[in-house]
Amino acid sequence: MNKKETRYLLGAALLILTLVACGGSDSSSTVDTDTTSASDTDNTQSDTQLGLDPDNFLTDALAQDISTTSCTLSDGTETQCYEIVINGVPSNNEIGPFCPTHIDDDETQGGVWFDGSGELYQLDGEFIVYTKTLYGDDWQLYDETTGEVYVTDTQVACEAAARPDVDPEYQNHCVQCDIEYYNGGVQQTFLIPVTPVALSNPEQVSADIGVALNGVVIAGPAPVSDILAANTIAAFDDCGGHINPVEGYHYHAALGCSDVITSVDGHANLIGYALDGYGIYAMLNSTGEEDYDLDECRGHSDDTRGYHYHAASAAENMFIGCYSGAQGSIEVAQ
Ligand SMILES: [Zn+2]
Ligand SMILES: [Zn+2]
């Protein structure tokens, strides 16, 4: 209603701002005719940088309307950023389930697991038993008498297990936390550049790399070696997300849950934006292929989208390889 109108007006204002920004570096500079720049067929990256479109987010994913503010990027660039405040829970689907509770449970009663070795495992009772074969004889994630899986099913247990130095009491557990321990979602604020600033040397990915269109943090690789070293599985749900005490629910993989905008040209769907302002698209196009010539960050350019990334597969435990642009920032609002 009113909110939508505001969003529309905001979008229009930003479009104008973007057009002004593209037209010249400032008002006192020499004015080129628009027709010259528009008909320029030079295909360089800077000509096709489209950046973030606030209208692409699901309205219920946001705690407030997206606005713009001054910001400083990771390379020192002072510029304008979108301020995006997310509720911290997906607006389009439920969270979980994570751990199966019994070794007879089927795959609908648990989520998934990946350790970066190239496999995506369905987290059912059978997999819980299989961890002994997969990871070693000292693995025992369930009670051999009752078949019950050892799950961190209290806040104390989840917080003792979901930290780098896992409490020995919670080794050999399937780890999960409940979002209700954290007010039903952790609100976070992203500052993402309105106009991406390309870097000549890419920057390494950080703990959190961006935001999904349904209001969920897109995180960097899960620390699977630490998790496995404690004989634990930090279960993901079928969307590739799980909960930790610091940032609440977050994604470690793209499994289709934030594909809320279908590309019309057969290109993979947009799923969110990286902190540098470039779009992150799904891995596969509409015919199920990954036929892109990607750079080390998993990015490439086309005429429609400008520079953008394609997420890796869940089995790779990553979304993008690095940042091709200077990063904005993220902060937990608590
Ligand atoms: Zn995580
Ligand atoms: Zn692409």
Key traits:
334 residues; alpha+beta; 2 domains; four-stranded antiparallel sheet; 18 strands; globular; disordered N terminus; binds zinc ion
Give a description of the structure.
- It is a single chain.
- By secondary structure, the protein is of the alpha+beta class.
- It has two domains: 2-73 and 191-219 and 253-332, no CATH class; 107-183 and 222-249, no CATH class.
- The chain is 16% helix and 24% strand.
- The chain is built from five helices and 18 strands.
- Strands 11-12-9-8-13-14-16-15 form an eight-stranded mixed beta sheet, with no helix packed on it. A four-stranded antiparallel beta sheet has the order 1-2-6-18, with no helix packed on it.
- Strand 1 (67-72) and strand 2 form a beta hairpin.
- The protein is globular, with a radius of gyration of 22 Å.
- The structure holds zinc ion (2 copies).
Note the topology.
Layout: H1 2-23, H2 34-39, E1 67-72, E2 78-86, E3 112-113, E4 121-122, H3 125-135, H4 155-161, E5 173-175, E6 188-193, E7 198-204, E8 208-212, E9 217-219, H5 224-229, E10 232-234, E11 241-244, E12 248-251, E13 270-274, E14 279-281, E15 299-302, E16 306-310, E17 322-325, E18 329-332
The protein binds zinc ion (2 copies).
Biased composition (Low complexity): 28-48
Region (Disordered): 28-53
Keywords: Signal
